[in-house]
Amino acid sequence: LVITAFDVSNDGKRIVFVGRPDTRTNYPFLAELYMINRDGSGKKRLTYFNQPGHPHHDWAKGFTAGDSAWSPDGKSLMAYMLHMQNLLDAALGKVEERIIHIHFGECLQE
Predict the structure, then answer these.
(1) In terms of Cα–Cα distance, which of 103, 101, 60 is closest to 80?
(2) What is the pLDDT of residues 63-73, one digit of tens each?
(3) Residues 15-40 pLDDT 10s
(4) What is the three-class DSSP state of 78?
(5) CB of 34 within 8 A of CB of 43?
């Protein structure tokens, strides 16, 4: 994976990051959100926007992960999503944007 953006949780224990496959074809369109522990263990994919058949794919309809930030209590994320048809559209500012909220609840408790 190529990491294009990341944010460390307030307690310093977890990192959420935007990752995309290490490929030169359509690379900006394949970005997803991942979470990992600070020590490198426990990598978990959080979104599946680019996986046909997954509910995230059906909801996202071509959106890809752009960036994210932890909530102060560390139980959720705000994520910036974007949709573009190609790199030319992106360069011309023809990008649709959304902000989504990802809540983890108790799954991140020690």
Answers:
(1) 101
(2) 777 788 898 88
(3) 999 888 776 665 556 788 899 999 99
(4) strand
(5) yes
Tokens for 51, please give them: 């996986």
Please say whether the dihedral angle defined by the alpha carbons of residues 6, 24, 31 and 34, taken in this order, is positive or negative: negative
Please state, in angstroms and rounded to a whole number, the distance separating the CA atoms of residues 65 and 84: 12
- Contact call for residues 59 and 79 (beta carbons, < 8 A): no
Distance CA 65, CA 72 (A): 21
Q: Which residues have a Cβ under 8 Å from the Cβ of 109 and sit 6 or more positions away?
A: none
Phi, psi of 108 (to 5 degrees): -100, 5
SS3 category, 10 = coil
